[in-house]
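Reopening this ticket.

The earlier resolution said the output was attached, but the attachment link was broken on my side. Pasting everything inline this time so it's all in one place.
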Amino acid sequence: MFFSSSSSAFERACAFKHEQRQASLNAASKLFSSSLTSSEEKLHQLPISKLVSGCKSGDISPFDIISAYGKKTLEAQRCTNCVAELMLDDATRSVSSVSWGPAADSDSYSSDLVVRSKPLLGVPVSVKDCIDIAGHDTTVGLARRVGQPVERSSAIIRLLEDAGAIVIAKTTVPTALFSVDTDSKLFGTTSNPYSPDHGVGASTGGGAAMVACGGSKVEIGSDVAGSVRFPAHFCGVWSLKGSVGRWPVTGNQSSMMGVESVPTLTGPLTRSLEDLEQIYKRVIDMRPWEYDYTCVPIPWRPVNLQEEGRRLKWGVVWTDGVIPPSPACKRALSSVADSLREQGHEVVDFVPPNISEFLEVGYQLAFGDSGQQIRSNLVPKETVNPALASFLDLISLPRLFKKLLAKFCFSKDPIYANLLNVMHAKTIPEERALIVKRDQFREAWHEQWAKEGLDFVLTIPAPFPAVKHGEGLKASLMTASYSFLFNLLDYTAGSVPVTKVDKNLDALPVNFFTSPEYDAMNVICKTSYTVYDAESMHGLPVGVQIVGRRLEEEKVLEGMKVIQSALIQKGIAFEGK
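Inline output:
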């Protein structure tokens, strides 16, 4: 629509998107600018289970839901700039055409299909702007996608709509998705709900901010390298990345379509663990394999790990071998480990096969084209975020120059030297060899996990809490490694909010940046640690990551309950906004 040979196409696309969004926000503010009434406050506090039952009984009106969440969505937008496209008008039209009250239990499908009783009736949902919704742009933060509404909704959206959910907004994403922070020329910068000076992570950053502010009950995000867990950790919410085949993915877009070696997955973010379990279960109850050919026909499998006296074994991964956890993140992980021990569980250190080498394989698979596909999605004058740009620049350096540089710095920094050696465009045989290596690491993890008899692995989602705006380049894409690792393994992984940064407890040691500890760090780590400042980060959320094996979504959700219970028993449970 916008892209002739004109050099101003990028600016025109950005201006169009800005004006389109502002017009919808201005119109909505006339209806949703007031504070929530007392009845709306009560409605807003309802968990998914009670919201759905209230809608089915007729005690809750869909228009009351839209009124309450419309107000909270606009409030979230004012506080964080998390909305990519407001869809309250669409939501109002959709609820007008749906049966509410007892009639909602009738089956809208042909008689040969299982009866579905709209298990998400009335649940307000926001959706990451990389997931197709018919009649709307799916920008992925890219200008060339502006003004190109898609014709058909993605499989997950069709399922949610059939289940009775109300889609109220699309949420902001960074340009081309791969980023440490959520920022683009299309939407601007999204700020952390706990601090306007700090970011929200990426790439489901807008969704994490939306959920943290209560603008939606559930965010539907996507995850290729931690994109639902990373922002959840930054914003103090819950999230879950399942394994390939559990939730629908058809109709999810990215700037690197077709990279099957590192697939994109769909996953939810919520403010509570109860809602996280409910959304995951109710989507599975909708038989997603009938919506998306990629889904495996595995129904919900109840798991109970909270029986009295049940002792679980947890393996703690303290570092990825690249960037060790900051004091705040290490404290969060330690507090969870200690709380579990106090409840009688076995907690051990888990040192899996060489993580940094495995991550090298993963980054080569993700950027095996040396970033050509991402660059091809950009129009003149459009740029990606500094962290991604720096990574792409490194890949693009002449191989001979990188080899010489790697040889020069290997003795002092083997991690950076290895990256210089391996990050270049891959031939087909080279890519196939990398997939073989990936699978060898998967086998090694599987065997060691079984040998040690683990129920779960515990680690951090990222080595730092939310970083300040503009510091993504220093933090680098490598901060996602703790999360990316489990995409490579295709393990189920979730983010659990645990605590908040304490400027006294979590400060770096005095003279840290002149210490032998800092001097021994690799180049990536040294630069990354300059973003950590417990004083400015005081009060920001900090989470941990819980990991199960492939297709263990039910078990991981149950493991989250065990963690939550242990923290409550110790009196240190996280309190969100």
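Reporter confirms the inline version is readable. Confidence is low (pLDDT under 50) at residues 107-115. The CA atoms of residues 72 and 214 lie 6 Å apart.
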